[in-house]
Amino acid sequence: MQKIPTLFVRDPEDRRYVLDLVSPGCEWVAAGEGVATRKYDGTCVMFDGAAWWARREVKPGNTPPPGFRAVSTDDVTGRTVGWEPVGQSSFAKFHGEALANIGQLVDPSKPFHAGTYELIGPKINGNPEGRPGHWLVAHAEADVISLPGRTFEELRTTVLKLAEVDHGEGLVFHHPDGRMAKIKARDFPRGAGSGARAR
To answer: Which domain of life is it from (predicted)?
Structure first.
């Protein structure tokens, strides 16, 4: 699980927001390559075919939790991203509820496929997805979003509308060769001063 790069460069004066400048390595998105899927607002978990894992970030100087599997370290923040056994994570109870809820609808003879999932529901991030119960959404089966265009302003409009209408967190772009990029609604300032200035 590599950290997915943000499509647009962050504003050095206010890193909460992005500028109208494509991040190096993400030019393929602006060129129209790959597909866009809905980014769900929850927490990432992974099934490796045998066990479940929860995404975990470890700040510099902090001791990783038992069984932690480091994947990558951010050069800017120094935070290490990786996986911890879901059973010891703060999401263990809600993950268990999601498995029980899925089990009511899914043929138990067909196990989960290995891959990453978004855990969403009432106790996850304030439940922006509006789920009545906890649920697992396979990232490989995320809704594909049709885009009117891929300019900064076109993507800003699409992402903010998706957030307003469907509570979508943003978009994840998938290139056939495995590259990915993301953009979130909260990356764009609202109202006056759209953050669209270029650097």
So the answer is: Bacteria
Q: In sequence order, what DSSP letters do the residues of 74-141 get, joined into one string?
A: -TTT-PEEEEEEGGGSTTHHHHHHHHHHHHTTS-TTSPPPSEEEEEESTTSTT-TT--SS-EEEEGGG
List, for residues 82-111, the tens digit of each pLDDT value.
999 999 999 999 999 999 888 766 665 566
Map 180-192 to HEC letters: EEEEEHHHCCCCC
Residue ranges of domains in the chain: 1-40+144-187, 41-141
- What would the DSSP string read from start to end of 48-69? -SS-EEEEEEE-TTPPPPTT-E
Hey, what amino acid is at 50?
A
* C-beta separation of 89 from 67 below 8 A: no
